[in-house]
Specification:
2 helices; flat; mainly alpha; 47 residues
């Protein structure tokens, strides 16, 4: 069985801050994940 890694809220906020997402402390987990995924997908498309 594969292990699933669930990042903590603090890790999500740190990643969001590193990616330049404004006010990561005010966002909920789902919103943070969506924003991080959007940015990561855009980075992959650019390369």
């Amino acid at each position: 069985m594969a292990r699933i890694f669930w990042p903590t809220l603090a890790q999500l906020r740190l990643t969001a801050a590193e990616l330049g997402i404004p006010n990561p402390d005010s966002l909920h987990r789902k919103e943070l994940l969506q924003a991080i995924i959007r940015i990561k997908k855009a980075q992959v498309k650019q390369s």
